[in-house]
Amino acid sequence: MDAKTISVNKDILSANSKTADRIRAVLDRHHCRMINIMSSPGSGKTSLITKTINRFKHTCSIAVIEGDIASSIDAEKISLLNVPALQINTGGGCHLDANMIEKSMNDLDLEHLDLVFIENVGNLVCTADFDLGAHKNVVILSIPEGDDKPYKYPVIFMEADIVLVNKIDVHPYFDFDMGTFPEIIYGLNPSAAVLPVSTKSGEGLDDWFSWINKILE
Amino acid sequence: MDAKTISVNKDILSANSKTADRIRAVLDRHHCRMINIMSSPGSGKTSLITKTINRFKHTCSIAVIEGDIASSIDAEKISLLNVPALQINTGGGCHLDANMIEKSMNDLDLEHLDLVFIENVGNLVCTADFDLGAHKNVVILSIPEGDDKPYKYPVIFMEADIVLVNKIDVHPYFDFDMGTFPEIIYGLNPSAAVLPVSTKSGEGLDDWFSWINKILE
After folding, report:
1. Other C-beta atoms lying within 10 Å of the C-beta of residue A152
2. Which residue from A152, A167, A169 is facing B71, i.e. has the nearest CB?
3. What digits encode the pLDDT tens for the residues B78-88?
4. Quick check: A145 and B42 CB within 8 A?
5. What residues of A are in contact with residue B126 (Cβ under 8 Å)?
6. Residue B210: alpha-carbon gap to chain centroid
7. So what's the pLDDT on residue B205?
8. Minimal Cα–Cα distance from A217 to chain B, Å?
9. A66 vs A71, A77, B196, CA distance in Å?
10. What is the CATH number that goes with domain B3-216?
11. What backbone phi and psi angles, to 5 degrees, belong to B186?
12. What is the percentage of chain B residues whose pLDDT exceeds 70?
């Protein structure tokens, strides 16, 4: 990258951060929490959101912002749960940014919402650079992806408040060293929690729900 | 995106295409084939390259260009096979581009090489937009990622010459409809071949090796 490219990137990220701070201020005023969920395609973002909605929908008011390059498959799945789901199609863009979130917030009834999930575009790289105004960043890595991913895609793990290791129901069929994985994360990001879960079998989800409960306090 | 953003993107992609054409011309002059392998993180790019090297290294001369955001884990794995492995670290960049490949070609002994694999950054989005000067694009989707990914990340599947569905050894533990999947790909890209494989068990790899043999003819 030449100096000009770096400077343009800095300008974009600086403007994005200001928008993100504005979003957080609006959410705080409405006592609404927002959680940004990031992972590769197919790691289990939609399944996690679905299970969490089913657990909390009778005790708090939830909405979901779905980020996708194309299609509205996930927003349709969420709508079936009788929860508002906004679809953002990035039209080829590889991540959401704060500007997209700020625009979509006009369609959210913040007055009555307690919790908003953002399902980011499936991408372990570009999503990490953009603060979306969320209060917490969740990163999902699934067992089949392998335990070496934090070395190869470190930034997203450095931005995480919690790392969920999903699909532990299939752990026996893959080489993923669950013993050393938390240390790898700790080396990159000492304040991130690591939680093994299976959105399919439900294993570990009670710990995830406790984490959500603390955010809602 | 505003008009200025679109125009800058077009300039970048147009310059990239010219560099890619120049790369292909140089490779053709040396009777060397280049194959660009793209997928999400952890879908099996390195395993596929490793198995393919072991199958062909006694009959043809192979090199690998490894693209990563950080680390040189994969290049080190490839070097153990006594094959030249060049590491490109993108320093945060989410894909390789033709300029990076052209620079790295100075370190390749094209005079004596028959086949170069590029292992792109693990990313199902941004990698698809950049022609790297390769003769063929291979996309790997693994069973645990789910059969809906072509709907959500269509561009990369439209750019593929062949789509490998990897990790079929764990097919029984996941909901992936292998019956309809080739039709989904055909709808996006009628000329792409679809091949189920397991780089772990070796199932389906003979068909992949036949595909490579045809490219080398």
Report:
1. 20
2. A152
3. 999 999 999 99
4. yes
5. 94, 123, 125-126
6. 17
7. 98
8. 34
9. 10, 11, 30
10. 3.40.50.300
11. -60, -40
12. 96
Chain segment A136-189, per-residue pLDDT in tens: 999 999 999 999 999 999 999 999 999 999 999 999 999 999 999 999 999 999
Q: Under DSSP, is residue B188 helix (H, G, I), strand (E, B) or coil?
A: helix
Nearest CB to B170 within list A42, A124, A173: A173
Q: Mean of the per-residue pLDDT values for chain B? A: 94
Domain segments of chain A as ranges: 3-216
Q: What is the pLDDT of residue A91?
A: 82
Q: Which two tokens stand for residue A103?
A: 């625009």
Residues of chain A whose pLDDT is less than 50? 1-2
Reading the block at residue A135, the tokens are 């209060």
Instruction: State the Cα–Cα distance between residues A107 and A109, nearest whole angstrom.
Output: 7
Determine contact: B45 vs chain A, CB below 8 A: no
pLDDT at B7: 61
Judging contacts by C-beta atoms under 8 Å, the chain B residues touching residue A159 are none
Asked if pLDDT for residue B13 goes beyond 90, the answer is: no
**Do the beta carbons of residue A98 and residue A19 sit within 8 Å?**
yes
Closest CA to B176 of B201, B202, B200, B194: B194
* Residue B92: closest C-alpha in chain A: A125
- Nearest by CB to residue A149, choosing from B42, B92, B155, is B42
Distance CA A173, CA A192 (A): 27
Tokens representing A68? 């996708």
Q: What per-residue confidence (pLDDT) applies to A4? A: 52
Distance from C-alpha of A119 to C-alpha of A83, rounded to nearest angstrom: 14
Amino acid identity, position A91: G
**Dihedral in degrees, nearest 10, Cα atoms A37, A40, A44, A50:** 40
| A88 token code pair | 């953002």
